[in-house]
């Protein structure tokens, strides 16, 4: 199946380079399954500096829609990370949408199988308000589980707020979230939208990464999943996400070049 992995990875790279979305991988490569899709993802990450992971498909409704029983994960690299208010070049994006999330930075490794809720909580050094900008190289976002996994769980860039907060200082389950576009609310949500609690998402990811042979370690950045509906973005947009008790973060999008 090595040829399938290499060919699918090349299709995704070519789509991004040309900015012309490709047909769904599941139609072009019918033998592609979840395991092979993760190999496609790893192939395209290559030797980039990995700084953490993102958790996708944390919504039960989306899982049901795609016919799956668990989330997926993508890989975060250093060049994907932006600070509060940084200008995000439009050429970095394809069919972009934004969602507010709680980002967590680990202070301890999570490398022992059977990670528990308490262990995951203790491992978090601090949390940050974050906006993840997702995108798809697949035409019209016509994706299923293998399409999005191969496409790095639809990751594009992440924008992190600048005020670290301990988990004990806010309620990660009940915290309310709002995204505003130039002052107008465009998405509402809460921490409970993320598998009932963002730490539940971290537990899932920690155990999944142990199974994959690449455990989460101290210093890793984890994007725990969307707190509300995704928002389509356009060149020149300015979004601000506010999460109660955690603070705010702004994502500024450059114009077309």
What does this structure look like?
The chain has 257 residues and is α+β, with helices and mostly antiparallel strands. It has a single domain (50-253), classed as Fumarylacetoacetase-like, C-terminal domain (Fumarylacetoacetate hydrolase, domain 2, Alpha-Beta Complex), CATH 3.90.850. It has 7 helices and 13 strands. The chain has helices at 2-18, 25-28, 34-45, 60-66, 117-123, 145-150, 198-212; strands at residues 50-56, 72-77, 81-83, 87-88, 97-106, 124-134, 155-160, 176-181, 184-190, 221-226, 231-232, 238-243, 247-253. Strands 1, 2, 3, 5, 6, 7, 10 and 11 form an 8-stranded mixed β-sheet that branches. Strands 4-13-12-8-9 form a 5-stranded mixed β-sheet, with no helix packed on it. Strand 12 (238-243) and strand 13 (247-253) form a beta hairpin. Helix 1 (2-18) crosses helix 3 (34-45). The chain is globular, with a radius of gyration of 17 Å. The relative contact order is 0.21.
Compact description:
This protein has 257 residues and is α+β, with helices and mostly antiparallel strands. The chain has seven helices and 13 strands.
CATH class identity: Alpha Beta
Helix and strand run: HHHEHEEEEHEHEEEHEEEE
Q: How much beta, percentage-wise?
A: 25-35%
CATH architecture: Alpha-Beta Complex
- Give the averaged pLDDT, no decimals: 95
- Residue stretches low in confidence (pLDDT < 50, at least 5 long) are none
Counting H and I runs of at least 4 residues, what is the number of helices? 7
CATH topology grouping: Fumarylacetoacetate hydrolase, domain 2
Q: Report the helical percentage.
A: 25-40%
Overall 3D form? globular
End-to-end Cα distance: 38 Å
CATH homologous superfamily descriptor: Fumarylacetoacetase-like, C-terminal domain
The assigned structural class equals alpha+beta
> How many structural domains in the coordinates?
1
CA gyration radius, whole angstroms: 17 Å
Number of strands: 13
Q: Tell me about the biggest sheet?
A: 8 strands, mixed
């Amino acid at each position: 199946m090595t040829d399938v992995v290499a060919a699918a990875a090349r299709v995704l790279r070519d789509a991004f380079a040309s900015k012309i979305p490709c047909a769904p991988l599941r139609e072009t490569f019918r033998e592609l399954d979840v395991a092979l899709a993760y190999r496609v993802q790893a192939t395209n990450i290559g030797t980039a500096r990995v700084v953490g992971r993102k958790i996708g498909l944390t919504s039960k409704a989306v899982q049901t829609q795609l016919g799956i029983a668990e989330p997926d994960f993508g890989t975060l690299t250093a060049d994907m990370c932006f600070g509060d208010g940084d200008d995000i070049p439009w050429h970095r994006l394809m069919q972009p949408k934004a969602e507010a999330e709680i980002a967590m930075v680990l202070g301890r490794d999570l490398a022992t199988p059977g990670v528990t809720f308490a262990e995951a909580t203790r491992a978090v050094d601090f949390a940050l308000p974050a906006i993840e900008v997702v995108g798809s190289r697949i035409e019209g976002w016509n994706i299923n589980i293998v399409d999005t996994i191969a496409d790095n769980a639809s990751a594009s860039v992440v924008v992190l707020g600048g005020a670290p907060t301990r988990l004990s200082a806010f309620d990660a389950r009940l915290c309310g979230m709002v995204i505003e576009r130039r002052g107008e609310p465009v998405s509402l949500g809460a921490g409970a939208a993320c598998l009932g609690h963002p730490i539940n998402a971290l537990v899932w990811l920690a155990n999944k990464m142990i199974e994959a042979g690449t455990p989460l370690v101290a210093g890793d950045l984890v994007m725990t999943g969307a707190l509300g509906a995704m928002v389509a973005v356009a060149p020149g947009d300015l979004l601000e996400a506010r999460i109660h008790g955690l603070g705010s973060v702004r994502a500024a999008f450059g114009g077309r070049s």
